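Exercise: predict the fold of this chain.
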Amino acid sequence: MPKNWIKTISPIFLLTFCSMPLMAQDPVPPRPTIDSVKVDSMGIRMVPIDSMRIDTTVVDTVVIRRLQERIQDIRRGVDLNTSVISFKKTKPLDKGYSRFKVPSFWQSINLLGLNFNQAAFVNWNAGGNNSVAALANARFERNYKFRYIQWENYMEMRYGLNAQDNQKLRKTDDALRLSSTFGYRRDTISNWYYSVKANFNTQFSNGYKYPDRTTPISRFMSPGYSFLGAGTSYISKGRRFNIYISPLTQKATYVFDQELADKGSFGVEKAVLDADGNVLEKGKNIFLELGFLVTNSWETEVYKNVALKHRLSLYTDYLRKFGNVDVDWELNVDLRVNEYIVTTVGAHVIYDDDILFDAVKDDEGNIIDPGEPRLQLKQLLGVGVSYNF
């Protein structure tokens, strides 16, 4: 009996033991939810109504779509801390709005100025003369710069008068200057230019050796100076520093007043006279020189509202006296109080071998000794107004 029972259940036990690994496996799990995308047992994607599609990726045969919940529209009221608007702390603009201007390669500078000096005495025991002095000046610039080309042009005018008790008006300053410089550079990095420069200087009215008012020592275009040459120049980016070197410059001196020309003033060839003083050949009105020219201008702000301006011109002639240098140096310091009021302190030094002083004459008025060149110095101190537009 036991043996028959064993034989009967042995096949059943063997079949059960072999099928246990298969029965131990987990049942087929349901399709998972990938990035909030629900898939039913049939493979149909179930997309919630309150969601929107933001991305879709296809991997083999499985389509994965990531969804993001829609942003709900939550209506909220506006909470204002105060409904009162105050302009008590609002300040007006210092300057008005400037209109839009089309960019240009031209730069314009227009400057007008007027300086005053005045001294008045009433019952002043130490004594003194009442005096009033005024100096007007104007400067206009038109400068062009684009890539390889730079063209600078300026005109400067100055005229000053002084009035004192028991004296007629006297001239204190008189100048007219014109200048034009054309430069070309090979690239846009370098500040060195191949340059051509033209200058012209003269004065407006007669000049006298006071108190003599009958015989003028200078007039308009007597003298007049012009420089024309070519060379090289270094111009900084802000145009505050400029140096020009010309190994070949022609200088022309003009004396259009014939009386001054006959005297040989300012280096021109004087007239040929006979024994009685009669003019046989008039003096020349133009005197030409060929030489070496160096000019330099520099502007900088020493302190706040304190500006320094420097201008220097050096010239020597190749043909007559090489090494004898004509100097024209001007230095001004502007102390600006505000936009319109400025105090100017300046000095002007000139040395020209062709300008002679203290000529010696005989009893008949003939010049025995033409004199000698001297250093010329002018000093300026004034308070005035300036307007830049």
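Check your answer against the key: The chain has two helices and 22 strands.
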